[in-house]
Every structure is written in C-alpha cells, then in structure tokens.
Amino acid sequence: MPAKTVNDIVALCKRRGFIFTGSEIYGGLGGAYDYGPYGVELMKNIRNAWWNAMIYSRNDIEGLDAALISNRLLWKYSGHEGCFSDPLVECKKCGARMRQDKMKDPTKCDNCGSTEITAPREYQLMMGLSIGAIADGEINAYLRPETATTTYVNFKNVLDAKPHKLPFGIAQIGKAFRNEISPRGFVFRMREFEQAEMQYFINPKDDEKYYEYWKATRLGWWVNVLGIPQEKLRFLPHVKLAHYAKAAVDIEYAFPDGFDEVEGVHNRQDFDLGSHTKDQDSFKLSAKVLDNKDSTTKLSYSDAQTGENFIPYVIETAMGVNRAMLAVMIEAYNEEDLGEGKSRIVLKLKPWLSPVKAAVIPLVRNVPELVDLSNQIVEDLRKLNIGRIELENSGNIGKNYRRHDEIGTPVCITVDHQTLEDGTVTLRHRDTMEQERIKTTDVVKKVLEIINQ
Fold it and tell me: Where are the beta strands (DSSP E) in 36-103?
C-alpha cells in the first residue's frame, strides 16, 4: 500500500539518496532541498515523460528554455510586481509569521494560540535581485516566480522561427523561485522549485473546447503515464478566479494528509499576450491589463484565411515537477510483511521511471571471474542507453536486494559460480521477488522487455 505519511518518504529519501536537506551541515535552509543520485534520476525520468508527451508526441508544441533572470518590466506588466503577494500576519506573543489565508483560525496564532495577531500586510513573493556594478543594492531585476511569463514574451520569436497556425503551444521546464512565508510538506511547497508548463495559444472562439481538451489530456497523463490510480486524482475548480482567468481547475492528488494540487489548467484569456503587446488599444482585449508603453512588439496573430489580426487566448497547463515526484514516490511506496518478523520496503515504480534500470551483482566480490563477468553484463546493458545500470559489488546479496527494492530497481541480475559452469545468471524480480535462471546471452533482451512494460 502507498506511504501512510510523508515522513515515510522523507526517511527513505535521506537513507537512499533521493533528497537531502539543503545546506544541512549548517542547519539547513527552509524550503531548500538537494536532489541526490537517485532523486536526480527519478526527476529526469518524470521530466522526460512530460517532454515526450508535450513535444515529441505532437506536431503543435515547441520547446523553450528561457532565462531565470528577467527585465523588471516583464514582471511589472505581468502584474506580478503589484499583485503577486500573500497576506501576512504576525503573532505579537511568540513572533510567528503566518499566511492569513492558510491559518486554521484567522483570529488565533497557529503556533501558540494567542489572539494577539497583527493586521495582515501584503508580503511580496518574488525574489528581487540587484544586478550590475552600479546597482547599489536597489532591486532592478527578479528571479522568475514562474516559467509562464517568459514564454509569453517569446511568443513572436517562436512563431517567426517556427511558423504555426493556431492552435499551437510553447512548453518549458525549469526552475522558479518564490519567497514563500511558510514552506511546508517536504518538497511540496519550496522557495526554489521546478515547473513544467505549457501555454497553448488559440483563437478566442475555441477557448472552452481546448480548456476541456487539456483538462482531460493532462488527467490522462497522470493516470496512463505516471501510473497514479484515477481514484487518487480529482479536479477542483477554482471558486475565486485570479484576475487573469476565465476558468481554472486544479488536478489534485490524495496525499496522506489529504488532497492537494499537483497541476493546474487555466483559461487565461488574452491577458498575457495582451499585457505585453504594444499598441494595446488596436486590439479588442477581453482581459483587463496594465497600460503598456514600453513593449516594442505586437504579440498578435494574423489569420491568413480571414485576414483577422488578434491577440490569442491562452490555455495553460502548469505542473510542479517536485510535487509529481513526491506523488509518484508515495504511490509506489510499499511496506510488505514477509513473515517470521521480517519485512521489506519496496518502491513499485513503473520500470521506465525507476532511477536504476538494472543492478548486476557478483555473488562473491573477491572472485575475479565473477566480477569480470558482471562487468561485461553491465557494459552490454549500458549500450542500450536505457538509463542507469549499476554494478553492486558489496558481497552481501540479501542487503543488495533490499537496497534495490527501496530504490525501485525493477530487476537484479546475480552472477554466481553456476554462471561459470553453464553460462546462466539469476534474474530476481523486484515486485514478486521471484527468481529465474536465464542464459547470459538473453539478459539484454529480458531487461529490455521488463523496462518496456
């Protein structure tokens, strides 16, 4: 069964090298984590799955990798500089600071229960920068709080370089930064995190059709690609819409402490391209935008058939990659009773998602013939370019199996003395713990079959 608490995952991540506390030897830093040897592999596999679904499997979406630091005007006209904030209150008794909209009771301190709470004030979520030799500490740029806005200002660049008819999209995976008041839930809410966002540009008359299309498409990806059971996912429509949105819904996953957001799908109307375009008055914008006298480019689309020139609407899909990894690990986590007081923890990941695709284990580490044969099998498997293949040469077969159960390695291949006699190895399957003898010449084919399940 999946993990009962997030603490189960926290312990596994530290023990097996998935995620570490950032700056841990100096006491850490709230909302900052480092991804270890297996964490980077699992994150990469999730990114690749998203990129494959959004880019490689389609003809209508292009990729982008924009800068983390942007001109301040970009965030002014996007509305972030003036509106991207949270209501912050402070307890006069204990000094705790809290987001008012996340408090259990807005009149009482979550920390000590005191009713001596300050009036709320807006807390800027963007991380300001002072760049340049003569900046003198003045904020003149920001670390991006999302990838989306840097996509909008590249709309014309992408369209000129790779012409498309509407609808078409631009997808981007990358880091974002937010000055969160209270990071929480392990890697669920952090100050530095990773997003996978896609902006789909459409004719305004088609907005409802494509909004529903992307809701269904993205939910299907979570179920069919990541393997999350559909009953563990739900749509939660936004009751209070953001200033840019015509419609918005969250895809939520049933975390151990309740449903919470892992991805959002939004109908952003013409707010974004309209906010950053020049000559705004020449377009009939539906969304309310700031008057922009600084933009140098019209972010409009000309329909060759009708001759109409207009600002496209945007349907956005926005996934938290860190949250996706957390959900995948929670769902894959199993603690199994093996009887006789024994148990094991196993990550039953889809084989192609696993950080290590196969482990090769010489039964005795100080027998050169076994080690040499194991190394040869490793090299043969690495030629497949299917991901990380490990040689385990610690000499304790039981501990090696348990370690790879916890990492989620789908198959272990043991080279023993019988291998030297008849050219067979033991293939041990993660989920069932069943073992079978196969010829060494069949190992590559068998591993490929397992990974492609």
Answer: 61-64, 69-71, 85-90, 97-99
The residue range of the domain holding 418 is: 349-451
pLDDT at 84 over 60: no
167 inside domain: yes
- Does residue 147 sit within a domain? yes
Rg from Cα positions in the chain: 26
CB 142 within 8 A of CB 69: yes
Q: What is the pLDDT of residues 309-352, one digit of tens each?
A: 999 999 999 999 999 999 999 999 999 988 888 889 999 999 99
Residue 103 counted as domain residue: no
Which residues are within 8 A (CB) of 166 and not within 5 positions of it... i.e. 6 or more apart?
201, 202, 203, 301, 303, 312
Quote the number of domains for the chain. Answer: 2
**177: its two tokens:** 């930064």
Q: Which residue has the tokens 């292009």?
A: 62
**Mean pLDDT along residues 118-128:** 76
Residue 287 is given by DSSP the state S
Between CA 99 and CA 122 the distance in angstroms is 10
Residue at token pair 């008794």:
93
The stretch 420-425 carries a mean pLDDT of 95
Residue with tokens 């140098």: 296
pLDDT, tens only, 392-403? 988 689 999 999
**Residue 5 structure tokens:** 């608490």
**Co-location of 275 and 191 in the same domain:** yes
Read off the pLDDT of each residue in 143-151 and give the average, rounded to a whole number: 91
Residue 107 resides in a domain: no
